[in-house]
Design brief:
Length: about 150
C-alpha cells in the first residue's frame, strides 16, 4: 500500500477492455453473447494477476449470480458481488443520454431487474452521491472480504 492508494485497491470497469478485446477477437463483444464467458474469464485472469501483487482487485461489472459462480470455478480466489443499481427511469435517462437504441435500453433494464432479484447487497446510485457510494463500497469490502 502507498500514500496514493492507502487501501491497496485496484478498481476496474469491465468495459475498459471491451474495444481492444473486440479488435482482438474480430467481433463486437457488446453484442456477441457467445464470447462473454471468455471475456469474463479474461477479467478473472487479470484480477488474479493483480491479486498476486498484493493488491485487492475490484471489478465493476454486471455479472449475474450464475456468471459469478462460473467465474469462481476458474479461480483460486473467492469472488464477491455488490450491485450498484439505479431505478429503471434513471437507467433509461442515462442510456438515452449515451444515444443507446431503445431495444438495448429495454435489455439493460431487464438485465437490471434480473440482477436485483439475485444479488443480495445493493447500493443505489439514485440516492447517493459518488463520494458516499465510494465510502459505502469500501465499508462493504472491509466487512465482506477476508
Amino acid at each position: 500500500m502507498s500514500d496514493h492508494n492507502p487501501l491497496g485497491i485496484a478498481a476496474f470497469d469491465i468495459d475498459h477492455l471491451l474495444l481492444s478485446a473486440s479488435d482482438l477477437t474480430g467481433t463486437d463483444l457488446r453484442v456477441d453473447l457467445n464470447r462473454w464467458p471468455a471475456y469474463n474469464a479474461l477479467w478473472v485472469s487479470i484480477l488474479e494477476a493483480v491479486s498476486c501483487n498484493g493488491i485487492l482487485p475490484m471489478l465493476f461489472c454486471p455479472l449475474t449470480r450464475s456468471e459469478l459462480e462460473r467465474a469462481n470455478e476458474i479461480t483460486q480466489a473467492q469472488l464477491h458481488i455488490l450491485l450498484l443499481d439505479c431505478s429503471d427511469r434513471t437507467r433509461r435517462e442515462r442510456l438515452e443520454g449515451r444515444n443507446w437504441a431503445a431495444v438495448r435500453i429495454d435489455e439493460a433494464c431487464e438485465d437490471a431487474r434480473e440482477l436485483r432479484e439475485t444479488v443480495d447487497f445493493r447500493l443505489s446510485t439514485d440516492e447517493h452521491p459518488p463520494s458516499q457510494l465510494a465510502r459505502e463500497i469500501v465499508n462493504w469490502m472491509r466487512t465482506t472480504l477476508p
